[in-house]
Amino acid sequence: MAEPDTTYFESLCEQLYNPKTPEEGEQRLKEVTLNLLVRCFSYDFSGTSSDESGEDTATIQVPTSWRPLLEKDSFLPTFFKAYSEFEPPYSSKVMECLVQIASIRIALFTEPQRTKFIVAIMQGIRNIIINTQGLDDGDNYNGFCRFLSRFRATVPLNEMVQTPGYLDWIELIANFSFKAFQSWKFAPNTSSYVLSFWTRLVQSMTYYQQLGEEAIEKLANLTIGIVQAYVSTALEAVPIRIEEGLDDPLENEDALIESLNHLGQIAHKRYQACSTALIELFNSITDQYQELINTVGINMSSEFKEALEVIETKYAWVVYIMASFIGNRAAFMTSDNIDKIDSEITTKVLQLVDFQQSLLNQNGSTFMNEKLDLAVIFFFQMFKKSYMSESSGRDIYSILSEVFGISHQVTMLDVIMRKIISNLQHWADNETVIRRTLELFNDLNTGYGASKNLRKIEATTFILQNHMSTEIAFCQHEKQHDNRILYFQILCKLLFADDNITERAFYDFMEPFHRRIEALGSLDTVEAFQQESIKKAIRDIFTDLYGFMLPIQSRRHFTLFFDWFYNYYSSLLLRAVESWSPDPIVNTLLKFYVEYASNKNQRLGFDVSSPNGILIFRDASQIISMYHQQVLKQPVLRQDQIYDYRYKGIILCFDIMSKCLGGKYVNFGILWLYQDKSVNEAIDATLQLIQSIP
């Protein structure tokens, strides 16, 4: 394949170097030239970039024919000069070009040009920092931090270390990083780029062995300052964010966790020092908290509540950071010292959780803080990731055992489960906290050994026996529909973690469903089914049953469910479909039946003599036929209603038919042999539903 012609690119660069344009057209020419240069640098010459979302880690694959131009002595200095001389927004466009230049694959260059290229960029970075060129503009500042991150991602650490004046240069970067953290109000998105720079530096130190003792020591010591600067700045910003109503990073957990993962990796370079500093900050906040709590009996004023919010938000930050420290313990790190440090960190968090729980019991919702509880959930997730495996060392429980009597995984699981149950009780109307709590519960329940351990503890027994009691209050809230599905998925996996579960144990678990159905009373007429309270109750029952069925994989477990459901409750489903169709509420029932008729993992592999497959299909045929009859009677709908009232239900009917036809558990020949009309009725109804779609 021929190399791309570089004439166009060269002419753009020359235009940037020597603009010979009348003054009135100069600004427009700058804008056009810079936009075209950015597009040239960003072009996917190799045709391998399928996802632009990851562009901050991508290497630019420019053609080799560009090499002579890139290696010119004037190439990089001209871009740096343009950046220093142009006013915003043109300077930010030049910085965007520099970001792309820093991303060019370093293998393109040959020695000595490769070293010259690296030195030129490092010198340009140094000049920008020393002279604060353009850094009073937010876009420039953000772009420069991105430039640092890209440069570190592209250039190997050992080649950077070998350049003259590297130690002074990296100290300059560290000082800039401290100021970047403190500039959160001016440039709020820069921290992630700065942390990315230092993370890549720390990661490289683990596999480059020839960096020199002085460089290694310098870099390692700088990481302590980076961690301390980030943490202290985050805590100092808390009262300002609250007072001025500014955006809080704690409210964007996904982005926060990405940044904190970087911080955790950096901290592990000097883990003892970083952890000690963090624990000291935690203790300082605890002292402030205790002092404030001592005034609660006297004063519950607005000032008290504001001070409480500040302290609890600081706690949330520290707990998130502690979680990132523990969560970034590499699998190959088997140091007893690290485990003991993490044991001390975990002890601090559990002491806070215990204290919060006692305040909650005494004072109700006054001391409930969403951000802090989300931080605790994340901490437990990271603890599970790093320390709840068969190979985990016992040193993690050294201090925990002394303070709480927690000496192994099962007792730690019990502590976490008690927190999960507390959240399900007290955060019933909060979708986010309930979702995160259930995700933690699901993480703990993932894996054969994990489920076995969970079944051993008292808190799990409580939730299995009381899964629909008023104590698990979140199920009573309309907004928790999706969370209920996840909740019953988890309970199903937990229930069937016992390989030898008996029919009696299964029926005991399903008893609350029986009571809920019995509470509906006599439903003898269509009018009875169409009462709003009845519709909501039946919808919720089948939402929960849908969630319960989702994880079922084995034939034995599905047969237990089938025998319970078909013998007692399938008629309720059929009558509800008949009474409600085509109201959108019926879609919940259709969705349930799609899962019910699904033969995933051959779970519907009934015995040869079993009629169960035929029974499932005959009910499916009735459902499709009844829905079809009601849909065709429906008057013409408005365009904004047609999906919910018609198309969604039709799609679900198609899914039911597909599961039955492809499941290989229905002997259709028997139905035809005995002149059963269910097959023909289902096919006719399906075809007419297809024809009803314009």
From TrEMBL:
An MF annotation (GO) of this entry: nuclear export signal receptor activity
GO CC annotations on file: cytoplasm; nuclear pore
InterPro entries, alphabetized: ARM-type_fold (IPR016024), TPR_XPO7/RBP17 (IPR057947), XPO4/7-like (IPR044189)
Keyword line: Cytoplasm, Nucleus, Protein transport, Transport
GO BP: protein export from nucleus
Record-linked SUPFAM superfamilies: ARM repeat
Ranges where the Exportin-7/Ran-binding protein 17 TPR repeats domain occurs: 240-481
Subcellular location: Cytoplasm; Nucleus
Family the UniProt entry places it in: Belongs to the exportin family.
UniProt protein name: Exportin-7/Ran-binding protein 17 TPR repeats domain-containing protein
Source species of the chain: Rhizopus azygosporus (Rhizopus microsporus var. azygosporus)
Higher taxonomy: Eukaryota, Fungi, Fungi incertae sedis, Mucoromycota, Mucoromycotina
